[in-house]
Amino acid sequence: MPIARAAKRAAVRLGAVALAGALLAACGSGSSDTASDGEGGKVTLTVDLFGSFGYKEAGLYAEYQKLHPNITIKQTDTEDEADYWKSLQTRLAGGGGLADVQGIEVGRIASVTQQQADKFEDLKKYGADKLKSQFADAKWAAATTKDGAVLGLGTDVGPEAMCYRTDLFKQAGLPTDREELAKKWSTWDGYLELGKQYKAKAPAKSAWLDSVGSLFSIMIGQEEERYYDASGKLIWETNPALKTAWDTSVKAAEGDLSAKLDQWSPQWNQAFAAGSFATIPCPAWMLGYIKGQAGDAGKGKWDIAKLPGGAGNWGGSYLSVPRAAKHKKEAYELIQWLTAPEQQAKLFQKQGNFPSSTGAIEKVAGATDPYFSGAPIGQIFGDAAKAAPVQVLGVHDQNVNQQITNALSEVERKGISSEKAWGNAKKGVENTIG
């Protein structure tokens, strides 16, 4: 779940979600096989993440510490995932400064399993093999090496939908019913056509969507093969599905349909409350972020509809334990608890992060969200998760995506040609990954 740029995330005020069914409380006790940090066997576990995993906001750390009085959890958080990954690579290379728990974005997990397996604990050592049945097969497999080592436990997945501002739609004379909109923008061409209608009557200083980079990322999330094929070959330049996503994004940029905002920038954050855009492609993890940025004033102004073009997935993460961690066993016990079905369901209740645990998915099937006009988020994202393709993950997925979205930003903000921007993306990928 990649989210925002500043070095530290401000506290996010999140709306409650109505969740069908009672959520079970998980219990357990921690023990230490390493040196404790202080008197009385107390242990401080360090957790280093990117963006908004939501554990602190959902009260899960506080709950775990109450269940385990000897444990204190200290989290550090880099908002921009690219900055986080760069720092993590430096620390892995040096072997120092690593936390007990490190977050890994799904676009990096192939790099971990294929190139850095010696830097992370095989969680089977602590009994993780017994958890396999709790997770979707694809989620589990992505964090497993060819020789069977399990290097991370899955947190969320990113089934996709479209979030939109009903108040801005009304002002522009567009329908606001989520079912009607899903029919009108069943294709991406239909989505852009509605964008043209919005632009013609839009409120002042309001665009159709936030960024063509987000449009590209959501579209490419609908594909099984994106940057690599199943053999591990880099195919992004010749992948027709990627070219379609590129051309659609360019069309939106050239049609002046976007607010020309860099995702995760301070200006983008402010735009949620300012009404600077009417729609934003939103994986499930985006819901909590929208609530945090739009605030209480945005409650009831947002809604969610089915995504144009079919189901897809954007994002999702893992929790891993570096071999250089100080408290490996306690770290494993924490991530096992955080990724258990009960906690994943609670996190969806508070944050919107859609579970990768099959048991949790069943628990949230009837969830609705009053902040998003009572949208049936359990159904919308649950249906998307079931229909989304199992994506081929490559070693440099995130790097390739970043170079492409950088190039699209040049079309969007600088007005350079699609051909020149494509060439710049190619150069960027070559320079980044060789």
Automatic annotation (TrEMBL):
Gene3D superfamilies: Periplasmic binding protein-like II (3.40.190.10). The keyword Signal applies. Keywords: Signal. InterPro entries: Bact_solute-bd_prot1 (IPR050490), SBP (IPR006059). Transmembrane segments: none annotated. Pfam families: SBP_bac_8. It comes from the Bacteria. Residues 1-25 form the signal peptide. This is Extracellular solute-binding protein. It comes from Streptomyces kurssanovii.
